[in-house]
Give the backbone structure.
Amino acid sequence: MTERAEIPDDPTDDDLVRRAADGDSAAWDMLVARHLASVVSFAWYRLNDRSEAEDIAQETLLRFSKKALDWEPRGAKVRTWLYRVAGNLCIDRLRARRPEDPIETVEETGVIDIQPHLDGQLDTRRSVHKALRELPHRQQTMLILVYYQGHTVKAAAAILTLSEHAAVSLLARARRAMRTALEHSREDLIGVGR
Amino acid sequence: MTRKIDELTDKQLDAALATLKPPPPSDTLEARVRLMAPRPAPV
């Protein structure tokens, strides 16, 4: 059996993909640990359904596993590639949904963190998710990437293949649309951030 | 930029957005995905 060199401290994603493609399962496990939760949460924000979000994440990682065998390190970053694939899968899933399909309510996920000042105000959370779902796809993706996933505008622009300037403008439009959609929740938010 | 009196402030909007927290991946999903490691073609 061939001796495999140890994975260095703080390996890059490209290092891990190369190793995983050579059959190093520990490298694949590290990639999964780095990216799976982000892909699940990205899909969950878009679909508001835990089961569907996990399906999307599984399909995304399955495709990435195949892609890893001929991964080009100078191409897109791993994270960018994953978000693009997951985003397209989410769009397909949303298109396939019939209007009468039930959508998981925010309470059913059981993992919503209730801030003390918003305790008991489930309507606000329901309104936020509804407003988020109703944003145009690109505004929705931009808001999720920057606000919820902590990406810089520049990184989000790369994922959406936009200029940084266009990404700033898209994010501003997304926030404006959310602000308008949530106006009726203002009473629930009195005292927050004044 | 002007803002209507009854619009949310930036902090109120941020607070509203922060009410949503995604679920972590389930253990079964993580186990399934770990089994998907690339399989290099035999030499």
About this structure: Chain A is about 65% helix and 0% strand. Chain A has two domains: 9-104, 111-194. The longest helix of chain A spans residues 25-47. Residues 127 and 182 of chain A are 7 Å apart (CA to CA).
